[in-house]
Structure formats: C-alpha cells, structure tokens
Specification:
This protein has 1 helix and 8 strands; from the N terminus they run H-E-E-E-E-E-E-E-E. The protein has 177 residues and is mostly beta strands. The chain has one domain: Porin (Beta Barrel), CATH 2.40.160. An 8-stranded antiparallel beta barrel has the order 1-2-3-4-5-6-7-8. The longest helix is centred in the N-terminal third of the chain and has 25 residues. It comes from Acetobacteroides hydrogenigenes. This is Outer membrane protein with beta-barrel domain.
Length: 177
C-alpha cells in the first residue's frame, strides 16, 4: 500500500509542476481551458489545460464507482492541433494527444495501480468562442502495474485489466477562461 501511495504522491507532484510552471507566465491571458467529460481510461474527469498556439498541456483527475469497485485516475497530457479550421477559434479542430494515466482500481479483494501510455486522435467542435466539445479515440498501452491483495475470500466483480493494451475513447466539454 505504501508503494501505491508513494506513486500517487509522485504523480500529484508531477501534475502540479506541469500545470503551475506555464501558469506563472499566463496570468491575465485567456490561455487556460477547464475540462470535464467521460472516457476510458480517464473515467468521469475534470481537468485544466494550458494553451499556447496549437499546443496544449494539461492534467486531469477522474473517478468512477460500479459493482463494488472504485476507480481513480490522474492524467497528464500533451495535445497538438494539426489541421482544419474553425470560424470560432484560431485553433485547428483536429488534434493528436499523448499522455500518461495512473489508474487506481480498488475493490474489496485487491488494489491495483496501472500506469498507461495513451495515444489519441480527436476532433474539437467549437460551440462558441469559449465553449466546445472534444471527441477522441485511441489506444492505451500498459507500461506498469502494481497489485496488493486485500481479501482472498471475496468473490465480487473486478475489471481484470490484465491486457497490455486496449482501445480508448471519450469526450470532453471545455471552457476557455
């Protein structure tokens, strides 16, 4: 359990550093986006991104609970808008995104931390100059996993995320500050 807590703390410090560093230079500018959405592996999530030209960097926190399992995720991402045009934004609508996701799965039987590399392609749909929706799909590659058995007598449902890679998809709403 201590190893999992240490990894979560390290991930939180990394996320805070990545978000805070560009924020220092951007105070007073409209270079931040607040996001919220649902996807796999991020689950129900909220986040913040820093925008500079066609590039975004950000962090998000996600959670989900079902069938006696609790899932939490912390993600850091980099996103590049590649092509297309939009009447409501200077940002190109088609993007590619890569990032790391630390997904904690907690059941009555076990606790497991998965480290995932996410590669995604998506489309931003600007609803106004400030509001929009992103839809994306891609692939997640598991780069690490730690497991702690809590109760071997429990027969509940677990996700059994044993595959080394799997498809991912999701959507986000965003608001430019």
């Amino acid at each position: 359990m201590q190893q999992i807590a240490t990894k979560w703390l390290a991930a939180a410090v990394l996320v805070a550093t990545i978000v805070a560093y560009p924020a220092k230079a951007a105070i007073g500018q409209r270079n931040f986006l607040l996001t919220g959405g649902f996807g796999m592996p991020e689950m129900s999530n909220v986040g913040i991104r820093y925008l500079q030209g066609q590039v975004q960097v950000g962090a998000s926190y996600g959670w989900f609970q079902a069938f006696g399992s609790q899932f939490q995720s912390v993600s850091i991402t980099g996103q590049v808008h590649l092509f297309g045009s939009s009447e409501m934004s200077a940002q190109r609508p088609w993007f590619t995104r890569a990032g790391l996701c630390f997904l904690n799965e907690d059941t009555q039987e076990e606790e497991e931390l998965h480290s995932l590399l996410n590669l995604q392609l998506g489309r931003a749909l600007n609803l106004s100059q400030r509001w929009g929706v992103e839809v994306y799909l891609g692939y997640s590659i598991q780069v690490g996993s730690d497991k702690r058995i809590k109760d071997t007598s429990y027969w509940g449902i677990t996700s059994n995320l044993e595959k080394s890679s799997f498809p991912n998809l999701g959507f986000n709403f965003y608001y430019r500050l």
